[in-house]
Amino acid sequence: MLFGFFILMVYWLLGELITAAIGWPVPGNVVGLVLLWISLTIYRRVPEGLADASRSLIRYLTLLFVPAGVGLIQHWDRLMSHGLWMILIITISTVGAALVMIGLFKLLKAPGA
Amino acid sequence: MIASIQTLLAISMTVGVYLAAEQLYIKARRSPLVHPVIVSIFTLMGAITLLGWDYSQYQHDTRFIHFLLGPATVALAVPLHENMALIRKMAVPLLLACFSGALVASASAVMLAWWITGDDVLALSMSAKSITTPIAIGMADSLGGSGSLAAGLVLLAGAVGTLVLPGLMRMCRLHDHALYGFVLGVTAHGFGTAQAFEKSITCGAFAGLAMSLTGVITAFLVPPLVPFWLL
Hints:
Number of strands of chain B: 0
Radius of gyration of chain B: 18 Å
Number of domains of chain A: 2
Shape of chain B: globular
Strand content of chain A: under 5%
Structural class of chain A: mainly alpha
Largest sheet of chain B: none
Largest interface: A-B, 70 and 103 residues
Mean pLDDT of chain B: 93
Oligomer: heterodimer
Structural class of chain B: mainly alpha
């Protein structure tokens, strides 16, 4: 478990170092995710401690973004003035993206489409 | 003292409200409208307003919870690695669909928000609206949008997706559980994945895979493209 947490912190650190070095606006933790994913693909199995640590963190992932979500309070005026537009834009964009994907599946004759 | 009373109070309150919201969600048979994150966020917004705290103080006090988003995001590599085996049989259509779906979901939201409202913080935060919250917060912040606003838009996209997509897929006659789950995961992240698991294990596994892939692809591909969408 502690070993798993150590691995996650080291990969996060590596990710932050890389984004800081090349100045690319990709979050360092996502770069860490990709580095760990590549490592696991090469190593071919997930060390037990890492599996435990990941499971515990992901189990409570939704709690972890509550503090950031409460920050919506700072955008109250925005929600009041553009709230309905936000819902409309999100609906159009979600339907558009889903239609493009369904179209691609049918076009490429994916099994099951 | 290791931590101030204010800090301990803020953390206990956040965890306590979340646990109660989780119970409510189970009692309401997992309806996305009472998702624990939505209920917790609005309850805590009310609580800090009543207590007269300002958000920056609350943010400072709960930074230990927020900090864990870092390792938790890296940890998403584990299920992603375990689920990658699923796509071997039809890697080309799935990866193509994921790239196009992720790009359309992000670009259309940014451009529409920019043209309609002219609000650049909103438009930049919209770029992350279809991806899983931990990645969305970091991406919106590093783009010059707002992580908190992105978190709200992600929740909204999840709720809209779970309401609109089942009907749309029925209309388009997409019944295959793997493909159905994949579309839900790309467009409605964790909300879609939870809904997909109610359909079947296969459907949920493909949704979870699609959610992680979309988060990674969007975080790498979208930031360099966003300036072109804000013309």
